Amino acid sequence: LMADLDSRTSVSGGRLIDEVTVVVVSEMGRHPQVNNTGGKDHWTYTSAMLLGSGIRGGQVIGKMNDDFQGEAVDLSSGQVSTTGVGLLPSHLGATLLALADINPDEMITDGAQPITALLA
């Protein structure tokens, strides 16, 4: 996909890859451990992948602890931090709004701020 975007010209005359951000996300995760029937239950954590225009790539934001719970993250560095916040779907929403030059405070009602470590 990225190679294809890199080979195409946008309507403004630039490279399409310089204008497109790709977001890949699942609506839910699966528990990391197998349950007693050999399956995996729904899990409140999932992954998202962002690449393309406006994204600072080559990094992983967040981490699970030994109990499979998400750890707090410093939004400006993307690093796990005891003074950080637990990531919510609204943090991703705030990040995408900020990427589009829209003030997240106008649309995100729980106060979640952008993960600025992701923004180039």
Q: In brief, what are we looking at here?
A:
With 120 residues, the chain is largely without helices or strands. It has helices at 2-7, 89-99, and strands spanning 21-25, 29-30, 42-43, 48-52. The model has no long low-confidence stretch (mean pLDDT 92).
Q: How are the SSEs placed, and which strands pair?
A:
Elements: H1 2-7, E1 21-25, E2 29-30, E3 42-43, E4 48-52, H2 89-99
Antiparallel strand pairs: 1-4, 2-3
Structure report:
- The structure is a single chain.
- The chain is low in regular secondary structure.
- 14% of the residues lie in helices and 12% in strands.
- It has 2 helices and 4 strands; from the N terminus they run αββββα.
- It has a two-stranded antiparallel ribbon.
- The longest helix is centred in the last third of the chain and has 11 residues, at 89-99.
Low-pLDDT regions: none
| Topology, number of strands | 4
Structural class: little secondary structure
Average of pLDDT: 92
User: N- to C-terminal separation?
Assistant: 20 Å
Major sheet, described briefly? 2 strands, antiparallel
List keywords for this structure.
single chain; 120 residues; little secondary structure; two-stranded antiparallel sheet; two-stranded antiparallel ribbon
